Amino acid sequence: ADYKYIQVETKDQLGLVMLNRPKVLNALNRQMVSEIVQALESFEQNDRIRVMVVYGNGRAFAAGADIDEMAVDNPVSLELLNQFTEWDRLSLLKKPVICAVHGFALGGGFELALACDLLFAAEDTKFGFPEVNLAVMPGAGGTQRLTKLIGKTLALEWLWSGEMREAGEASRLGIVNKLFPKEVLIEETIKYAQMLSKKPPLSLRLIKESVSKAVDYSLYEGMQFERKNFYLLFASEDQKEGMNAFIEKRKANFKGR
Ligand code: HXC
């Protein structure tokens, strides 16, 4: 596909998506969001791809939704536009998605990062939800995902103030998986993604699905769900391969079936 605001590439079994509107700090206009979702969905459909990575070109990961584009909106135009169904498709991806951020991860950019599975950050990253300063609020899951991660009072304080916080603090709050010096962020993220791509894909997939149920199911229902997924993995060739390789003291080679 021909994309205008992103660049897409594959590397071994990884699918890489680079946000590419560096002049405006990768401000997410609607076409760009649509391209990101399309690119990830096409990696999802591609049997050779096992792990996806999203990152940004230039000075920042993304400084939020495109304010120029939003400035003229009204509730009816937003309702008719129905842009968030596109964002919702991100949560339907079953393969691991790692987001690697640097510079700024603000507003919609932060929401995009929180919609991914793992968040790796350069030490220079500033995180925040500046929407309040524009007299609006997050709309792509920010209030929900942030609160589930850090709890109500911390989330409220951060969202109300609209302040930017350093990567180190975001990491202490449990939002960031790994912190790297800026120069090696992408290289280290790819290294990690390569490691993950050697793991049995069906396990990764059903672990992701089960963990996400822990967020919205009761413990009992979540455990029933986990159990079914556990049983299901015993129908895979990879389960036999993984266990036989252990018994035969050799390295397993997983096929994803
Ligand atoms: C449109 C943006 C932008 C944005 C930056 N730019 N962020 N354009 N939408 N969100 C543009 C600037 O206008 C400028 O263009 C260029 O990018 C470089 O930015 P500067 O401001 O010159 O850089 P700097 O002084 O380093 O300041 C960086 C910054 C600041 C602190 C990140 O750009 C900033 O405050 N940006 C807006 C952040 C924000 O409010 N985001 C939330 C948006 S609301 P020119 O042409 O002047 O060079 C949102 C809601 C999501 O995300 C709802 C769900 C989708």
TrEMBL record:
GO molecular function: enoyl-CoA hydratase activity
Superkingdom classification of source: Bacteria
Record's keyword annotation contains Cytoplasm: no
Keywords in alphabetical order: Lyase
EC number: 4.2.1.17
Segments passing through the bilayer: none
Top class in the EC scheme: lyase
GO biological process: fatty acid beta-oxidation
Family stated for the protein in its record: Belongs to the enoyl-CoA hydratase/isomerase family.
Entry protein name: Enoyl-CoA hydratase
